[in-house]
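Example 3.2
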Amino acid sequence: MSAMRRQLLFIVLVLMVLVAAGSWFIGSKIQSPAEVAARTAPPTPSAILVAIEKRTLSSNIVTRGTSRFGLAQPVSIVPSALKPGAGVIATLPSRGANLSEGDVVL
């Protein structure tokens, strides 16, 4: 082999070794988000203080219905997309009670 070819081969081999070493070094410094999260310590726990508020929890339901004077009618509430189960009637007005507009029926 001529001296020029040996020199070219030596330069190519040195460049390949440098590229391999640089790639290994850079690859060892790259971290995935999961690795970063695993090495991160959780925050120190502390007390959560919130002012207490006393109130009645309630929910208003507006529905349509049909009623007739003098006939017993079954009453049911149509299930909604938010609560697919059948509605529950808590209390009914007493027999003979006078109802006016805006009164709570059930």
